[in-house]
Specification:
This protein is α/β, with parallel strands linked by helices. The chain is built from 14 helices and 15 strands. The chain folds into two domains: 136 residues, Alpha-Beta Complex (Aspartate Aminotransferase, domain 1); 251 residues, Type I PLP-dependent aspartate aminotransferase-like (Major domain) (Aspartate Aminotransferase, domain 2), CATH 3.40.640.10.
Length: 407
């Protein structure tokens, strides 16, 4: 089926519905996207009502809309709403899932070189406290995950395959669907960190065939900070043990026993920010109304354009490799630390970020990178904004060159 491209008129509409686009060029969507105005207004208006009518009373008024957030998320990733738990961020979601697995000493976890720092810390901690072993499957020379090596790494002791769909400091994309087929064939638990992918890439948990998926709201979903969710396949709910339980997690309790809820809400705590929960729902609804397949198509077009222009600048090195790449573009500028480029562009109201070595430690160490400039595009960005950033980089390098080699 041919994807209908997002038109220039639609881009202008999305920009008009996003106050932040009038203030600066925002290429830090992999850090935190600019939210649509409707998301901001939803959060602010809810908080105002809480201040006037009371927190519990306002929650009761918006009960249906708050519950609808689960349905919207389920629709977004092709899950059942009972498989969704709302949490503060992807790290919380990932930690609930990973730490809830009953590992035994000697159990093996297979990971990739693309893992995020929080996940690496989780693996290291489990090695020290629970006696597991971690096996890394590296990408090949072209930057593609080696599925053959993954199969060879599986043993009778393999308890979990845990991969990050899109890494923090490189634009490569992991073949999560193909990995899922291998995990299912060998009956191995499968955890996917989709922190950077949901909102920019179509994510279908049934197609991926993962058991658990962790997501944050603030990145490509354009939701408020402090939002996220965890997907847990209903058939493995009882395999994930809870490290902390409050009254919200149970369906019944007596002086002698309690029974957990039959859905993923057992992983939640009662007290959370209802205003930003509504904001998360609005952000998901906004993305669904556009169509994530259309968003992904435009993000790829913009990222290809950015890489092309950056590659044409003498002194700029683009680091992204692999057959499939995303809206995260990473590069270095000769003679400049990444943070200096970030600061120089910020003076021109252009937002980029710095990808530190520890963020994707295995990958960065492999390629001897200490930091990179990370420019991440979204569908509301424009070709003109990309040209403006590249022109600023060109002028900066020319200025330095003229100072070193004056006429």
């Amino acid at each position: 089926m041919q994807i209908k491209s997002i038109t220039d008129q639609e881009v202008q509409q999305y920009r008009a519905e996003t106050r932040g686009t009038t203030q600066r060029i925002h290429f830090n969507n992999a850090g935190s996207s600019l939210p649509p105005d409707v998301v901001v207004d939803t959060v602010v208006n809810y908080l105002k009502e809480e201040a006037i009518y009371g927190g519990y009373e306002t929650e009761a008024k918006y009960k249906e809309q708050l519950n609808n957030t689960y349905s919207l998320i389920a629709r977004l990733i092709n899950a059942d709403k009972d498989e969704i738990a709302l949490v503060e961020n992807a790290s919380s979601a990932w930690g609930i899932a990973f730490n809830g697995i009953e590992f035994k000493p000697g159990d093996e976890v297979i990971i990739s070189e693309m893992e995020y720092v929080t996940n690496i810390i989780g693996f290291l901690n489990a090695e020290k406290t629970r006696g597991i072993k971690t096996r890394i499957v590296y990408n090949d020379e072209q930057g593609n995950f080696d599925l053959k090596t993954l199969v060879e790494a599986i043993s009778a002791k393999t308890k979990l395959i845990a991969v990050t769909h899109i890494a923090s400091t490189t634009g490569g994309v992991m073949p999560v669907v193909e990995i899922g087929k291998i995990a299912r064939k060998h009956n191995i638990l499968y955890l996917v960190d989709a922190c950077q992918s949901v909102g920019q890439v179509p994510v279908d948990v049934k197609e991926i065939d993962c058991d658990m998926l962790s997501v944050t709201g603030r990145k490509y979903l354009r939701a408020p900070r402090g939002t996220g969710f965890l997907y847990v396949r209903k058939h493995i709910l009882d395999k994930i043990k809870l490290s902390f339980i409050d009254g919200f997690a149970v369906k019944s309790v007596s002086q002698d026993e309690f029974k957990l809820k039959d859905d993923a809400r057992r992983f939640e705590l009662y007290e959370k920010n209802r205003a930003i929960t509504l904001g998360l729902g609005k952000a998901v609804e906004y993305a669904l109304n556009i169509g994530v397949d259309r968003i992904w198509h435009r993000v790829q077009q913009l990222a290809i354009l950015m890489r092309r222009h950056l590659n044409n600048i003498d002194g700029v090195t683009v680091h992204d490799i692999g057959d499939q790449q995303c809206g995260i573009v990473t590069f270095s500028v000769s003679g400049f630390e990444a943070v200096a480029i970030k600061n120089k562009l910020a003076e021109k109201q252009i937002n980029v970020s710095v990808g530190l070595a520890q963020s994707t430690l295995i990958y960065m160490d492999k390629y001897h990178l200490t930091s990179v400039v990370r420019a991440s595009v979204h569908y509301y960005n424009t070709e003109e904004e990309i040209l403006l950033m590249c022109n600023e980089l060109t002028l900066l390098l020319k200025t330095v060159a003229s100072e070193v080699y004056p006429k």
